[in-house]
Amino acid sequence: MHELLERQATSLARQLVHVFVEEIPIYRRLPREELEGDITMITEHNLRMICEMFRHGHPPSSAELAPLRASAARRAQERVPLEALLAAYHLGARWIWDRLIATATPADFAAVVDMNRLVLVYIEAVTSAVGAAYLQEREGMLSQEQHAMHAAVSALLGGDHAALAAVRLAPGYLVMAIAVGAHPDEKQDEPGGSIAARRKLARIRDAVQRYASEQVLFVLDATGGLVLLPCGGEPPAPAEVVEAMSRAAGVPVWAAAEQATPAEVSAAAGVTEEVLEVARIFGHPPGAYRLADVLLEYQLTRPSRATARLAGLLDPLLDNPDLLRTLKVYLETGLDRRRTAELLHVHPNTVDYRLRRAVSLTGLDPADPAQLQQIGAALAARRLTPR
């Protein structure tokens, strides 16, 4: 059998490459020169290696496997999926086996058993060699990609114009500062909790990457961080991206977003982090926020002697928490006394009484538009300066 296989190795290799193209989709996309060159050559090498196994009855040597490892590394560089590569080896072994035993008779039973054992040894050896070489090459490539990603992030956040010129950047970025809730599985003791956290982050990265054709840049830990989503034109809606992250991770996600050119990323990152902090301080629900959504709260968080004075406008209500709570809910419901009564589980007349008491104590009447703005600002300021 080894003599028969050796005589036909070259023609069988060409036939087998044709089978790969027919049966494995990604092989149809490989260049013709690669199929007729490198792929055909390594296929013929495999056939001759099987010949030697049949001739001597021993597994392939490390030297015989070396061309397979080199070929696997090249496929990794070309981003041919590992499963497609292994499928080609298994398909090739099965295809050759069918032809080798096509003329076997019952008298050949012992020889067929020996050949089958050697083919299984071959599959085991090449799967191990090819898989290890492919993964080693991919790890090296990922390390380079991570280095390039870190260089890009450092240049963008540092605003270093010289460094920006040295890295490949997108025309623009959707800059998102995010805060991520804890997944229930993260409450487990180590290592289960840390594994759950890493899986959560991986799902978030995958969800965001679907919105970009280029590599999204991440600076994340289990509680959140920064996302730089490259975009050549109109960026995706931040609310949509946040919803996708939350759905994929199974946790609530808060985000602040700004669109920026590469030179503006550093400043945009600072703004989004501040907006996110404001949204969390003021108890906003999970979702996407821009500066325009929290203008009043944002301004109140800037250092100012007026903040404490604003908060103090409602100090007369501290001895009666029901009055302060009623005033707060009344503003949150858009001055709807009936809805306020429902939320507080009291009669609307009670709401009217409490509001009159609040007006008499503070001198601020929500029915007056100017004073209504002061009340809203005072309630917001109290979030920052608990009294």
From TrEMBL:
Q: Which residues form the RsbT co-antagonist protein RsbRD N-terminal domain?
A: 11-148
Name recorded for this polypeptide: Uncharacterized protein
PucR C-terminal helix-turn-helix domain sequence ranges: 323-381
Give the matching Pfam families.
Answer: HTH_30 (PF13556), RsbRD_N (PF14361)
In terms of domain of life, where is this protein from?
Answer: Bacteria
Q: Which Gene3D superfamilies match?
A: PucR C-terminal helix-turn-helix domain
- Taking the record's annotation, the residue ranges forming a coiled coil are none
